[in-house]
Specification:
The protein has about 170 residues and is of the alpha/beta class. It has helices at about 15-25, 30-40, 45-65, 75-85, 90-100, 125-140, 155-165, and strands at about 1-5, 30, 70-75, 105-110, 145-150. It has one domain: Rossmann fold (3-Layer(aba) Sandwich). A 5-stranded parallel β-sheet has the order 2-3-1-4-5, with helices on both faces. Helix 6 (about 125-140) links the parallel strand 4 and strand 5 (about 145-150). About 35% of the residues are buried.
Length: about 170
């Protein structure tokens, strides 16, 4: 089963993903976008985001073929919101792919952490609107999710409680 950590930028997805992977001794599928964009050397395009989506899927599938459970630092739901926000469109194949992943668990991170600027983060003032887009999309696709809020260790503990219930730990 895939456990995907999703939400607006600067909500602690990578930090929480790494902590959960360590806690449960599970493989981590890292975010493709950060790596891709760091090497790009120019503003990204719609086609770049599509390449990122395809690589994210490929990495997830590879790890899931070899493991019963996996932690994912973002997934296609993040890319869907990104495409809808920046380009006002998302290819149907991405939505179809998300519908096929209905057996996973999504942890949607609330934008209640302080903003920390970096080269790849785009708009601290849109985090609440993006959070609402995530909720809407997850609901429309009937994906199983819980909202994670709070700071530091409280955030991690809430995620662990949710995952413990799923894994029967």
């Amino acid at each position: 089963m895939k456990i995907a950590i999703v939400g607006p930028e600067c909500t602690g997805k990578t930090t929480l993903s790494k902590a959960l992977a360590i806690h449960y001794k599970l493989p981590l599928v890292e975010e493709v976008a950060r790596e891709y964009l760091e090497q790009l050397g120019r503003p990204y395009t719609f086609d770049d985001v599509i390449k990122i989506a395809k690589e994210q899927i490929a990495r997830e599938r590879k790890v899931l073929q070899q493991n019963k459970h996996v932690i994912c630092d973002t997934d296609l739901s993040v890319i869907q919101v990104w495409l809808e926000d920046k380009f006002n469109e998302c290819p149907q194949w991405i939505i179809d792919e998300l519908k096929q992943q209905s057996s996973g668990k999504y942890l949607l991170l609330s934008p209640d952490l302080p903003w920390q600027a970096d080269r790849q983060r785009e708009d601290e003032h849109k985090r609440e609107a993006l959070f609402n887009m995530y909720k809407q999309n997850l609901n429309m696709q009937a994906l199983d999710y819980d909202i994670i809020s709070g700071k530091g260790e409280a955030r991690t503990k809430k995620a662990i409680q949710i995952i413990d219930n799923i894994l029967g730990s």
